[in-house]
Amino acid sequence: MRELTYYIGVSLDGFIAGPADEVDFYPVTPAFAESLGTEFADVQPTFARAGRGGADAPVTQFDTVLMGRRTYEPALQVGVTDPYAHLRTIVFSGTLADPVDPNIEIVRTDPVERVRQVKAEDGLGIYLAGGALLAGALIDEIDRLIVKKYPVIAGDGIPMARFAFAPKSFDLEEARTFDNGCVVLTYVRTRR
């Protein structure tokens, strides 16, 4: 069975973005960007892979990306219909128009059911790009968390996942620190 990995950046107080979707307050240094860009090349948008000279590099960790409408729309607003052209892209939305790009699948039904189908297929891992509502809906399907915890307190914003109070346990697998003060934490779902 394929794993679903939620790879996300958060503030110290648990926000993935500000109240108006701001993410420019996260400190990113060249060394940090280079390290994660190399290690997690598959989760880089296509334009970022191209900028690193890896536009045509084969995927090695993930072959599918999941996102909600709010995560997908910023690309559409600048005319990019497929921000992850190197991955199969599944967008969950009840309001988006039918896609114009053949690599984009819009799912208007239950995300859990569709994700279970995708997890049962052959292939590499599945990357959950966001956002909070989709992560909340899929919380019981998430097998791994890779959390980039930035040394900043946002005060308000969009949480990492939004769902009714029901604590979920994950075990720490790895913790690494970087020159920008960011700690990258890898967790796996607790299986007890």
TrEMBL record:
Gene3D superfamilies: Dihydrofolate Reductase, subunit A. It comes from the Bacteria. Residues 5-183 form the Bacterial bifunctional deaminase-reductase C-terminal domain. This is Dihydrofolate reductase family protein. The lineage of its organism: Bacteria, Bacillati, Actinomycetota, Actinomycetes, Micrococcales.
